[in-house]
Structures are given as structure tokens and as C-alpha cells.
């Protein structure tokens, strides 16, 4: 039996036309069509938490942003989505993402490719580089509207390029030569380009730390965004409750009820004492 060839449809419905018209100007609407990989649940829709929506709004509002985040905040995914939207629907945008090493740079681009290939077909701006089905090369995605996203590992020469629309430095506190990269990259943003620098806390006195402190004091043009783990409260609390219930069940099997609750009370008294000293 001959294999049936599935052709990509070319006619858009009224709803698809409406979606395409809106998605080019509304990154929040665009996020409704994006998917990411969850470590437990696999492929899931990228449903933004309130703090992620607030950060995304700052990307649009402010030219220079520096983020101090907690681990597993989903900021790399958020930045990946923003870069894909910016390059897909805005001609001649040049985006560089600088990561701590080559494998990390490839992982960031892989996230962007995953989002791209799971978009509805009519939202996929054609990619013109790389082999068929690979959605660009290992380090770059180039679109037919003249825009590209390049993800590169850190090096002393990483910031030297032609004029950029957006520069992203991921985990900047760990990036070697971050100061030299920024010094080389800043002139490439002089034509109106933007920058996003993000990291978890790591040491003091480095480029990221000094830039963050200056931003807080108003000594540089960066908009400082602080993210606390409590902002991810729903998912963290769910995991903590499951762990606590499991621990209580295990401890009750080992001890009598009176002994167990005495230890719980002693622990709570110790915690209250410790917190009062910190305050």
C-alpha cells in the first residue's frame, strides 16, 4: 500500500488568522501556545506563574534588566520564549545568548527549538539554516525574516559581534570573563539594543554582584528584579506537604504518639527561638 503523504495546510481559518494577528504583538498571548519539558510530567503547556508574567512585562518595558533569582524559577524557559517571540515576529532582530559552557549553550537553544516545533504550523516563521528537521544548527537559528538567535558559550571574545537587538547573559555570576564580555558587548547595544542578565546568587565582588548592587543604588541603567522562592509557593508547598506527611507517617511507626509530639513541640520551640534571634 502506498504511503500517504501528509501536506501542510495552507489555508487559515478565521480563528487562526485572528491568533496569528494577535500573537505577533502580544507575547503573553504567544505563551499560551508554547510547551516545555517538565522533569516529572514531560511535555506540558508553558503556563506562566504571576511572577513570570511580571518579569516578562519588565522585559518589554525596560531596556536593561538584571535578575536575582532562586533555583528552578523557570527564568531560562521564560527568556527562551521571549527570544523566540522576538525573533519570529520582528524582522532583522539579532539575539545573542551567552551561557557558562558549550553544553549549557546548546541546552538553551534546544529549549527554544522545542518550543518552536510545538507551535501551531501557521505560527512557525520559516527557518533557513541547518538541515531539514533540525530547526537550525547546533548554535544558531536563523529565520527567513532576517532575525537570528545565537547561543554561544562564554569566552573572552563572546561579546564582540555586530550590533545586537538583545544580549542575554545566563547565570552571569558563574560566567568567566563576564566583565570583559559586557565591556565588549555594550557598544553593540548602542543602537537601541536591550540586555537581560540573570543569575542565582554566587559569590561577591564579581561582575554580576557589582552590577546588581549598582542597579539597586541607581548607579547604572539596569532595572533590578529580585525573585524570592516564596513566589513559587504553590508548587514548593505541595512538595513540602507530601514530604512532611511521609515523614510523620514514618516517625509514628517508630515511636509512641507521646514521644513523637514531644519532639515536634521541642523542634517548634527551637525554630521560634532561632528565628527570633535572626529578627
Tell me the β content: 15-25%
Average pLDDT works out at 81
Percent helix, as a range, is 40-55%
Oligomeric state of the chains in view: single chain
Helices and strands: which structural class? alpha/beta
Q: What's the tally of helices?
A: 9
For the biggest β-sheet, the strand order reads 5-6-4-7-8-3-9
Radius of gyration: 23 Å
Q: What does the overall shape look like?
A: globular
Sketch the topology as an H/E string, one letter per element.
Answer: HHEEHEHEHEEEHEHEHH
β-strand number: 9
Q: Ranges with pLDDT <50 over ≥5 residues? A: 1-6
Largest sheet: 7 strands, mixed
- For the terminal residues, how far apart are their CA atoms? 76 Å
Features:
disordered N terminus; seven-stranded mixed beta sheet; 15% strand; two-stranded antiparallel ribbon; 279 residues
Outline the structure in words.
This protein has 279 residues and is α/β, with parallel strands linked by helices. It is 43% helix and 15% strand. The chain has nine helices and nine strands. The protein has a seven-stranded mixed β-sheet with strand order 5-6-4-7-8-3-9, sandwiched between helices. It has a two-stranded antiparallel ribbon with strand order 1-2. The longest helix has 22 residues, at 233-254. It is globular and about 70 Å long.
